[in-house]
Amino acid sequence: MQPDPVFFKDFAIVFIAAVSGGVLARIAGQPLILGYVLGGIAIGPFTPGLTISEPHAFELFAEIGVILLMFSIGLEFSVKDLMRVKWVALAGGPLGILMSIGLATVIGSLIGWPTIQSIVIGAVISMASTMVLARLLVDRGELRSRHGRVMIGITLVEDVAVVGMTVLMPALGEIDSGRLLLIGQAVGKALLVLVPLGYLGAKVIPPIMTHVARTQNQELFLLVTLAISLGTAAVTQMVGLSLALGAFLAGLIISASDYGHETLARLLSLRDAFVALFFVTIGILIDPHVIIENLSLLTTMIALIVGGKLLIWTTVVRLFGYTWITAFLVGIGLTQIGEFSFVLVQVARTAGHIGSEVYNATLAASLITILMNAALVRYVPAWIGRKRLAHDHHETAPWSPESESLQQHVVLCGFGRVGNSLGKALEAFSLPYVVIDRNPDIIRRLQTRRTACLYGDASHRELLMKAGAADASLIIVALPEIEPAALTVSRIRDLNPKVPILARAHGLAEGERLGVLGATEVIQPEVEASATLIRHALTWFGVPKDRILDYVERYRQSTERKLQPDNQARRS
């Protein structure tokens, strides 16, 4: 069988578009998603210049990107994280969907849309993209934040709701007992598969991963990981659920084992490549002429997605007892539509409920709302934080970097549980330090205590300069997520090539990455916990203290030695 030269030419063009768009987005300081989508538009069939021959040939690769991203999100999540938001997700999710459909129906009746078209548009706009949202949260290090957990929980419920909607969509206007029976059968099949799948995953997957890990073969480990993620996604698709949901469940199962961090580390590069293909494919399908030809329809859809959903989801989350700030951040994150909206609008189009103008307007609305959503998610939380701090200005005396000279101090990036403990230790020995954190509640508490602090993202060069990173005697990066930590270490090293940087990492791969970027020493909580347990266990059996300390020191060195070559190469 001869390889198709046209396909490989198109494949090269797609990756060139992804790289070009990503580089331009990085230079402009924007999320990479925006660059990928705009790169796709540039090589699409609707714009002049370099283009690909078969745009739909890459939809399969886009699906693989969805699977790998959702699998990795499952690895970073945990069952405990999901259980914290179970009520707002399970009850609030369907409520928000119904409110979105109701709002579109009311607005549609006012401007003269057919009732069925209004219902279709309402269903389409109710589906936020888990794919886009998860990527933005990961990039910002907010996946495990309170609003991040709520958003992911709601979008997963929306993914499940797509099953019922796709069954109902063709029969709009003629819902009967037979159609309702089909929905019941679909839900029953889903439960019959998912419950045993979860049980088998908890009992069978961890032993399999243990046996594979013992081979110490990296290629085999990666292949088994991919087989689990793709296989679980295929099973859920066979019963009518989404690929994304199955991949997420597979990641959730492995995250409960001892191999979650290692699996994630091996998967990241492959995941990012396919995720780029997904967003480029979205861009390829966009016809820019639709924006002009159906401007009123498109404008109304965007208003419903951004303004309507912001109001709906803020209200729903607030009803479940969350603060207004959390509710508003959730509402901001859900102001976009994505891949499952495409599914629903295609089903409705096939059934004859809508015309091509609604279909094309949905694609265009997806692109525009993804671009708007990326900007909102990036800038609104910082704006809220500044407003909250300004509101409490009269109660606190914010520290100003211009008010005192900073030299030979410690810059502490991140003030969670670890950062808080470090701050207490520095205060106990009268060592001056400055905190950078983007949690406004933490900053307010520090201001009340008259502790030197700055609100914002520690990876921003301007904040590091204000905190005196160029003249600091030590900088500690205590950020919980690897992406913000890596970017912060890199920016610090650009500002001050000689300052010692202490950083924390959850696993060996993360530690290696921080070491390459410039961290002087990387502390791994798992290593320190193991060292403490070893010391206590040997003490219990009466092993002499000097022999225990010698063994623990050799254990630490053997673990840290893997990082040394990278650090030495960087410093030489």
What would you say about this model in short?
The chain has 572 residues and is mainly alpha-helical. Helices cover 71% and strands 4% of the residues. It has helices at 5-27, 32-42, 59-76, 79-83, 86-90, 92-111, 115-125, 130-140, 146-168, 177-214, 218-238, 243-255, 260-285, 289-293, 295-319, 324-333, 339-350, 356-391, 417-428, 440-448, 461-466, 482-495, 508-517, 525-540, 545-560, 564-571; strands at 410-413, 433-437, 453-455, 474-477, 501-504, 521-523.
Written description of the protein model:
This protein is mostly helical and 572 residues long. It folds into 2 domains: 5-386, Na+/H+ antiporter like fold (Up-down Bundle); 401-523, Rossmann fold (3-Layer(aba) Sandwich), CATH 3.40.50. It is built from 26 helices and 6 strands. A 6-stranded parallel β-sheet has the order 3-2-1-4-5-6, sandwiched between helices. α23 links the parallel β5 (501-504) and β6. The chain is globular. The two termini are 50 Å apart. Mean pLDDT is 78; it is low at 392-397 and 563-572.
